[in-house]
Amino acid sequence: MGMTASHSRLLIVDKDTGLLASLADEFAPYGFVIDAAQSAGQMRDRLAGQDYALVILDIMSVPGEAPAVLRDLAIERRLPVIVHSAACVDGERIAALEMGAEDCLCKPANPRELLARIRTTLRSRARMAAQPDRAAGRAVASFEGWRVDLTTGQLFTPIGAPVALSDGEFQLLRVFIQHPRKVLDRGQLLDQVYGSTSDHFDRSIDVQLCRLRRKLSASGLKGPVIRTIRNEGYMFVHPVTH
């Protein structure tokens, strides 16, 4: 798989220098270059000087800063984040997903599994960039006065205020925008958001839906936007124009 330099460079935020060295060796044959940061400060220094395709974050390496770091990476910088941490038991894993992480693995994960999750996430990102709006052939869609730029991944309220969405949240919104007023089941959503070869589970979609609904409501969109259809799936209730 051919990749440009920025698309093959990963940043691992972790205090375990032995793990960093071993992952760098494991990933090198697959064309990935690893940079390391052992604190939030080092992470920001690395990000200031280099473009990255994805960040692997041990939340225990940024004690007390995990929510801020995840917001900075996933929302402000729109970088996909995979949390790899011993803290990733159920409660923490769901919290990490709700704060913007694309995936969460319990440390130490099998390096091949971590590699598979990385490649799945990057394929999903590349697919979104390459196919901004296959159905309409245009890059902008609107509903209820809201505007979605399907090329840049930005959402704007009727008064033009931007709404910060993580990459995962935007990809889910994009699927609904492309299939308005149609019931989509979890399997369809998983395939279109993460790819048919992904091993993401239904819970991933539930978390993304919860976050997306909350963001839209907090930004002023009234009423049910994504309706749950019992035993069938979910439906984006507003008509969409392109």
UniProtKB/TrEMBL annotation:
Domain OmpR/PhoB-type residues, every copy: 138-238
InterPro entries reported for this sequence: CheY-like_superfamily, OmpR/PhoB-type_DNA-bd, Sig_transdc_resp-reg_C-effctor, Sig_transdc_resp-reg_receiver, WalR-like, WH-like_DNA-bd_sf
Regions recorded as binding DNA: 138-238
Record Pfam families: Response_reg (PF00072), Trans_reg_C (PF00486)
Response regulatory domain segment(s): 9-122
Presence of keyword Magnesium: no
PTM annotation (4-aspartylphosphate): residues: D58
Gene3D superfamilies found in the cross-reference section: 3.40.50.2300, Winged helix-like DNA-binding domain superfamily/Winged helix DNA-binding domain
Taxonomic superkingdom: Bacteria
Keyword Ribonucleoprotein in record: no
Keywords: DNA-binding, Phosphoprotein, Transcription, Transcription regulation, Two-component regulatory system
Protein name: Winged helix-turn-helix domain-containing protein
Taxon lineage: Bacteria, Pseudomonadati, Pseudomonadota, Alphaproteobacteria, Sphingomonadales
